Amino acid sequence: MPDEDLEEARPRARVVSTEEVVALIRDGVRVAGSQAVFARLHRLNEGDLSSTLSGARRPTAPVMAAVGARRAIVIEERAYG
Question: Within 13 A of 1's CA, how many CA atoms are on the CB side?
Fold first, then answer.
């Protein structure tokens, strides 16, 4: 597969904050109707979801995946000289 096709096949990604991810999770819970329903729909541990929404813990990988998010390491390009 040529590089151009590979780039088109990848989903678009953007860097977001933890707060933005939590906002997406809150929106998902609102649409689902409750934390319990959202957790069941996404096969999440309800305690992890609750801890995320209360601010007691950072979102776990499965909780983030429920809204299409994942952790990444970002290297910022800098001018060396």
Answer: 8
d(CA 46, CA 49): 5
- The sign of the CA dihedral 35, 54, 46, 60 is positive
Residue type, 65: A
Residues of the chain with pLDDT under 70: 1-8, 79-81
What is the DSSP secondary-structure string of 11-40?
PP-----HHHHHHHHHHHHHHHSSHHHHHH
CA 53 – CA 29 distance, rounded (Å) = 10
The pLDDT, as a whole number, for residue 37 is 98
**Per-residue pLDDT at 76:** 80
User: Do 52 and 59 touch, CB atoms closer than 8 A?
Assistant: yes
